[in-house]
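Lecture 7 notes: from sequence to structure.
We start with the chain below.
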Amino acid sequence: MKTTLKDISRLTGVDVVSVSYTLRQHPRAMELRPGTRDKIIRAARDLGYRRNELAASMRTGFTRTAAVLGRFDQIQTADYDSAVLAGILIEASRLNYGIKIYPVDNLDGSFNQILSYQIKSVISMSVDKAQRLKTAELCLEHGLDLLYIYEDSQGHFPAVNSANHDGAYMAVKHLIELGHQRIALVCAEHDHVYKKEHHAGYLECLNDFGVVASPKLVSCENSQEGTEQQIARMLELPESDRPTAFYCISDSWAMLVERSAIRLGLRIPDDISVIGCGNTLLAGCAASPLTSIAQPFGDIGRTALRVLLSHNTDIVPTSDNRYLLPSRLISRDSVAAASGQLNETAKTKLQKYGNVELKKTIAKEEA
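Predicted structure tokens for the same chain:
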């Protein structure tokens, strides 16, 4: 005989509504004591209870499924997109939710299917402004919940992202503490929010530490060809003006810096220190393995689904309704102390980062 909620209620002595909240992982279930929730779950398992999702969707008018909009037809999906989607899927499994993916390039067709399946929760992974705006309009029209991954929020719809400004600040601060004063920025045209945030973090850190920001040491090109030309221009400056370190808003840009420097006979990190961003799979395979800002893409996916479904999260949203997750500095061989300018702060960072070149420099000074 099929087990019902009433059977579990009778066995546990807990009312049917609380049993239902617990087995549906409804936010109201958190009002119950942990021991009560555990008792309900054990009883459901012992009785062989299986939730009828089809019947539930017919009764409530929605399914325990969330839609994810993105560009999944690309032959090569970016590392970060894969990590974000994996995070969404892992959290969906934990919350007993299903995930259906839809192409963002055909929003009308995708929303027709979303509405046909009675899906009420939507995540957009698009960074295209027009697509994001149209997604918001369609969700408002049909009364759907929406959350953006990357970029900024839209109206009352929140966004989840990494703290790009703070990541850039962290990288530049690390270089300054190692004695670098001429720090270049390899950014890109400011057509997305995250690029503006990286640039702002770079400038703010220089200003906070009294380092003069030189326009000659900044590149904001979008194309690889234009970026390589700007990197070469900076590396070919007279030694007194040439940057001793670069912060790049992506690992790919950082690898371009390494390649350009090596072509000019410069050594990484002896002559030029380089920090990238993203901590991609290729970061450790660079000519000099890249120090990089690791962004928590898996956690972004997990947090996004929790916020969308109104589950608890430890992250407090900003005033503009964004949930920003902190980044980490991953230290590898592409960064060393500026020659002859090692300071006490840099020495204390040995315990935290263990930089090989930094150890060598300190050893020479203390010999």
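Points to note: The first strand starts at residue 65 and ends at 70. The chain has three domains: 5-51, 60-157, 164-296+326-366.
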